[in-house]
Amino acid sequence: MPLKMLQIIAPTAAENNIKKLVSETSVISFYKGALLEDDHALYTLLTRAEDRQQLIDKLHDILQTSSKARINILPVDATLPTVESRISGDTREELYQKVGHGAQLNFTYLLLTFLSTIVCLIGLLQDNVAVVVGAMVIAPFLGPNLAFAFATSLGDKDLMKKSFICGTIGMSLAIIISAGVGALNGSVPTSVELISRTEVGISGVALAAASGVAGVLSLTTGLSMTLVGVMVAVALLPPAATFGYMLGASYMKEASGAFLLLSVNIVCVNLAGLLVFLGQGIQPRLWFERKMAKPFVLAGILVWSVALIVLVSFIGFYNLVDL
């Protein structure tokens, strides 16, 4: 969303600094509201997306001496007269809220994982594309992967750990459920949707990379993430379900192909997501935080890149053996 309102609770002593900051940026409108207790006041700023992050960072510096200071970011659907804005996007603080919700390991996440896996298995076994797509609509795997890439770009160890645990448990649950179904069924039906997930090629790498890029762009620009979530689920859920099913049914060659596809897709989604976050300029606010985050960023790029190279080599070897 290009326009948003900043509602600021600040000490009245900081009013001149706030006015100076407003004069230095292209704030659309600024006014002082009600006086509050303890010599604080309410200030309201109508801002564009291109200025908002810089403005909030400088407001942090101005307000850090007050424990009662607060910055609220409010959406603005429209304003008259109409104001043009070159870009649309969210601030670092807003992204924290979004990715934090996506990496919560709770009953809803586990239930959606269970339901999407069951629906996906039905679609794969019945060779029904529509059912497979329906499963990917409800699959919750976009959140943990984007949260991990976002946390890596900021060097946030707590969020990295939280999103890693959430993603790992969700993926493990999908594989365990699928393995149980495979063990009970014991055979592999002649399903194109199922068999195609045991074959891995460069096209799968491109799909996963595109999913990661699209996911971050939708997150940082404030656009709807529903369709992008489906894209990421395309890359992750069907290979995970296929791997588990083949493993449970003791078809090890097919299981290895599905596992290879799943692994390369996870790597591509996370590597592409991290690179796009960096390209979008997502970084910590303070210089020492940026310095501390740098090793995490470099390590993330290195680990994901090496993993991708190794997996692509395995793909070449795997396909060569099939020939």
TrEMBL record:
<feature type="transmembrane region" description="Helical">
    <location>
        <begin position="131"/>
        <end position="152"/>
    </location>
</feature>
<protein>
    <submittedName>
        <fullName>TIGR00341 family protein</fullName>
    </submittedName>
</protein>
<keyword id="KW-0812">Transmembrane</keyword>
<feature type="transmembrane region" description="Helical">
    <location>
        <begin position="107"/>
        <end position="125"/>
    </location>
</feature>
<dbReference type="InterPro" id="IPR005240">
    <property type="entry name" value="DUF389"/>
</dbReference>
<feature type="transmembrane region" description="Helical">
    <location>
        <begin position="298"/>
        <end position="321"/>
    </location>
</feature>
<feature type="transmembrane region" description="Helical">
    <location>
        <begin position="200"/>
        <end position="220"/>
    </location>
</feature>
<feature type="transmembrane region" description="Helical">
    <location>
        <begin position="259"/>
        <end position="278"/>
    </location>
</feature>
<feature type="transmembrane region" description="Helical">
    <location>
        <begin position="164"/>
        <end position="188"/>
    </location>
</feature>
<keyword id="KW-0472">Membrane</keyword>
<keyword id="KW-1133">Transmembrane helix</keyword>
<feature type="transmembrane region" description="Helical">
    <location>
        <begin position="227"/>
        <end position="247"/>
    </location>
</feature>
<dbReference type="Pfam" id="PF04087">
    <property type="entry name" value="DUF389"/>
</dbReference>
